[in-house]
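For the sake of transparency, this paper describes our internal protein records without simplification. An entry from our holdings is shown next, in its original layout:
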Amino acid sequence: MDCEIEVNPMASRYRLGIDIGGTFTDATLINEASGEIFVGKVPSTPADPSVGFLEVTERMLRKASVLSEEVEYLVHGTTVATNAIIEKKVAPTGFITTEGFRDLLEIQRQIRPTLYDLHFEKPVPLVPRYHCFGIPERVDAQGTVLLPLGESAVRRVAEQLRDDGVESVAVCLLHSYINPNHEKRVGEILGEVFPGSIVSLSSEVAPEFREYSRASTTVINACIRPIVARY
């Protein structure tokens, strides 16, 4: 037998916010009509964060005597991506850039937080050097192609990354923020040769000038995409 439930438009509606941290999963439930607030937390479940998420959700609904259909808005925050970067537990990632700039992630920028600290060490790149490759191509700052893309070289790199078991690939070519055509073609070739890979193009992730900033942002995106997708 079919039945319909009439919802009183004047009935209370709730907003639920859940944040999954490394130790606890916290929740806040707000009654939009009265402003009443309920808070709670449960231990996080790193092996499967959804377990803690559902547990704290059910606990909050019971605590406030609220039905799930009364929750009109859900906000979810998580430190899964942040923790993966801090703990260096990211997905195996490759890096493709313009030939001659393979060490871009190693060199970084000539800026030190403390100018006279002789013991300062730069952060270790998220992509190891053996997974970084330079390919023949060159575009100038006006977007003019100075050297056509070496597609055969891109294919060889894609094959090597595939054979090395890489999950994700970050692509950052010189001046691609002004002319993204070479990057897009690299992405297409990766899709053909290495169809299982996740590809992040700097011209899509952070289309701004300054190579290292654009490259590092794209690498972070590439490193955590498989982690977040599984999550």
